[in-house]
Structures are given as structure tokens and as C-alpha cells.
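Q: Hi! First time asking for a complex rather than a single chain. Here are the components, and I think there are two in total. Is that enough to go on?
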Amino acid sequence: MSQITPRPGRIQRAPEGFLSPEQIREVSAGRRDFLRTAFASASMVVAGTSVARAADGDPAILTLPEHSTTLGRPVAERPYGAPSQFEAGLRRRESPGLTRVAGSSVSFSPLQGLFGIITPSGLHFERHHQGWHDIDPARHRLMINGLVKEARVYTMDDLMRLPSVSRIHFIECGANTGMEWGNVAVPTVQYSHGMLSCSEFTGVPLSVLLDDCGIDRKRAKFVLAEGADGSSMTRTISLDRALDDVLVAWGQNGEMLRPENGYPLRLVVPGVQGVSWVKWLRRIEVGDQPWATKDEAVHYIDLMPDGTHRQYTSIQECKSVITTPSGGQTLLDKGFHNITGLAWSGRGKVKRVDVSVDGGRNWRTARLETPVLSKALTRFNIDWVWDGSPAILQSRAIDETGYVQPTYAQLRAVRGTRSIYHNNAIQSWKLADSGDVSNVQVF
Amino acid sequence: MDWFRILIKSAALTALLTGCATPLPPLIEAPKLGMPVAADTLTAQMLNVFPDGRGLPSGQGSVAEGARLFARHCAGCHGKDGRGGTAEELTGASRPLDHSAADKTIGSYWPYATTLFDFIRRAKPMGAPGTLSADEVYALSAWLLHANGLITADTMLDAARLAALRMPNRDGFLWIEAP
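A: Yes, that's all I need. Here is the structure of the assembled complex.
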């Protein structure tokens, strides 16, 4: 067994984040006990040092380490920076066994290791239907056609000359938390909620381009967005929404979009499920009725208990999740802990987040950190002193329309248990007296 | 280019209100960016099909031809008879949609046959999308519809027949809100 480095704070944050591949294998094989022993001995070393500390001081601060006594590495050695080598465990991951064709799959954002509300671009979740491409922007075109006075085609140059806006929005796949409809299915928040990311997007409002082409206001009711990848992803969007806050974006977190996120051009449809945010956007067609494409007619819709489907349930309703402590993490100490998490609503701003540590009997209101933005992730924090007894942690978000995030019992009473999409139920994490946190469902 | 004028105007107004002495230069000509699209480019690009059949190309295909094409291009992932492999099941539903392990095949689930043509034409086969001719797409659609018990083995599928086909689960969808 390789040695475990003690970490600041007293949380073993998540198996993937802090353990070696070999240790992860031992954890997934059910061997958690070795962690505890390793930590106990690590703590003893620390305790031993702290005894010594009183007399001799802490060598970690008294003895100058190598980085204080040698010359560091040169500027621009890495012209495009990369995370510290000590953060190598923080990465997006594909859920084993979820899909069997690698080009048509999902990778999840490591929510348990992120701070604030912005997702680093390299950790943004992925869902591709026929793989991703790195498209030469000089050869990329956007065409607008259909019920317009004049069909036009734009180069990236054309688009980037237009007055741009920058806006922070979350994007959530409609299938996020989809594996949990029937029962507990995945161990960590990365897999339960990680088809969720939030970025600052820069682009031109779609309304500017539609005006430019002169839409036929009498007949136009919908637009179709089409991607340039092999799946030729297409989704219908109502004209009202298209003219409201939809962006044709090239920027993400201050730089160009990442190829996995649609470089050089993608649609941003605030509040709406990710599938409508068409990547590698190549065409917008204006029409008079929905096109009923494969990914709106038979996917990204809601199966009801009687076998019927609710169609065009596109808005991501208010939802929240505690990211620490969360499944797979371990609390190593009683005493003070900060409970932190994310809340969001496709209908506007988050108004309030309540947190329970007793499975929903009692609730306390968490602090919302700024900024609190419309259709963006909102970070919440709340102090908690753990007395060492078992607990069930939950968060419940309320948005500015007054909508309250439902419990599993409430959601299932209407939608049953066999749906895939749009699961925004309250998430529960069970904390055992051992300090281990696991995924459970509370009704 | 209304946005441009508004922008300039409001900027000028702000300048006035704040008593700034330098007026903005007058707008000589609003940019009209992008290029108009030639008619033939348009036809080549507009491959989408509406549920009422608008957008379907001319051409036709038989069930027998579709069977050959399916074996060559599709069976590797979707299974020999379309009952699922590494990719989705497309045929052979036995459990209804209100069953706990419902089969969601084209025949038991899809609301429109046009969606099938539209998707195959633009996105199939995976790995070489856009390489099938209109006749081949009609043939593949014909075989899939036949394998789902929706058309007879001797049907020659074309735009009119495809658009007229009423799928069994057509009324199984409730439109909730604007897309």
C-alpha cells in the first residue's frame, strides 16, 4: 500500500481526488478500512510532531524546504499553464459502463473539488453524440436560412466583429442525475450531478443575427439549431426564446471555447437543458413548426408512469446539491465543518437555500455567496459542528419564482421512477459515525 | 442594422448627458456582415425534414434493399435484426411503454416516421454520416419500418408514403412548453 499524504483540513475529499489508482481500486473493492488505518498513523505522526512542536517548533515551517533555497523554473516554461501536479486527481471522468460507444458518451465534472461558481474549461462536462472535433475557425461558417428575407452565411471574422456580450450561465444536461430515478446508482457527486458546469460565455445575441437576416415575423415561430459534427445535432427552439437571451458564443471563461465545448462556435440557451446548446454551430433555420428531430422527439423528454411522454420540457428547474461533504468523502474529525454546495434554476435567480443535517426534519438557511446571477450556479455555505453521530445532509433550493426543489417522494408521485431526464430531487448524503459519506435516498 | 444605430445613439446621448465635449463620429454606413447564400448552397444545406413531410427529397427504396444496407452499415452496432447491440434497440418491442422495463423501439415509441429518415440521412452510419443517398435512406427506413411491423415487405417507400404513415405511439406525447 502506498503512503497517503496528510492533507490540510480534516476531510478525505473524494477517492478520485486524493488517492492513487491503486488505492482507488482498493476502495472500489470495498476495502475502506485501510484508509482509516493509514490516516490514523498519519495523524499519529502529526500528533507526535505537535508534541515536539511545543518544544522545537514545526519543522515544516522552521526548516527551509528545497523550493525556498533553490532557483525556480523560468517564466513561460509552460506557455499555456496547467494545474499543479498535486491536483492530478481532479479530472472529468467517464462513468464506467454507462455507454458502449466512446464517441457517443459522457464525462462528468468533478464538482466535489471545485470552488465558487465557475467551472474550469478543462473540467467542463462533455456529452458528444458522435465524438468531438477541433475545427479550423477559418473554415467554419454559420448559415441562417428559412423564413428570413435573405439567407446569409457568416465567417467567424464576421461574427466576432459584432458587438459582443459576456454572461455567466450554468449548463446542465437534461439527463443529469438521471441514473438515480429508480434508486441510488452512483457513489459520488461527480457522477450524480456532474453533467453540470458554469462558464462566462462571450458572443453575439442570436436576435442580432436574426434581425440582420430579417425574419418573417408573421410566419416564423421556431428556429432550428444545427451542429457541424457527424451527429448533426439539431434542436428546435421557440422564436420567443431565441430572441430573448440566446447567444451565439465563441468565448468561454476569457478564451475561445474548448474543442470539446464546441470550438469555434456554440449556442448558449440560458436555463435550458444542455442538448439545445448546440456545439460546433453551423446553421440556424427559421421555421413555422418544430422539426421533431431525433433528440427532441424521442430523447430529452419525460416518461410518465402511464407510458406517455412529456415533450419539450426543456427548462432545467430549480435544483441544488451539497458538494462537500458528499458521497465518497470521509470526515476525519468531529467538530467544525463547512457544508458547501451549488444551487441553480433555469427560471432565474436562486432566492434561498436551506440545509438539513437530519434528513429533512429541521432546516437552516445557508449563506449565498456573491454573485447570485440569473440562470447561473450559485455557491452556498453553512457552518456546522459535527458531534460524531450519524447524519443525513440535504440541501433544498428555492428560486425567485417561489418554486421549491422537490423531495424524491414529491417528484415520484407525479413522474414515477422510470424517467431518465429532469431529475431535480433533493439529494441526500448519509454520514456514518465512521465519518464515511455515502449516497442514499430519503423520501 | 438597428442595434448599431441604437448603440451609437445611446452612446452619443450618454456623452451629451455627462457633458462630454467630444461627440462620437457620425455613423457612415452600418455594417451588413455575412454573405447572401446562393440557391444551390441552400438546397444542399437544408436537409431537415418536418413531421408533415416538408423537406423530404424525391427518391424511393425497397424493404429488401434496406435489409442489405442494414446488414452492411448498421448491424455491427445495432444487432443483426436491429434488436440492439452496442447501440440502441431499433426493433422487436415486446414490453409496452408503461412496463417497468419498457422497450423503446421505433415501432413502439417514435411519434413520426419522418424523424427516422431525417436522422439516418444526416447522422448515419455512425462513423461515416452523410454518405448515404436519398434512395438508400428510403430503403433503410423501409426495412426498419417493416421490421417494426409498420409496412408490408413489398412496400416501395417514398416521400408521400413516409409522410402519410401514422406511427402507433403518435398520441403518446404531451407538449408541455415552448421548446
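A: The first helix of chain A runs from residue 15 to 18. Let me know if you'd like any chain examined more closely.
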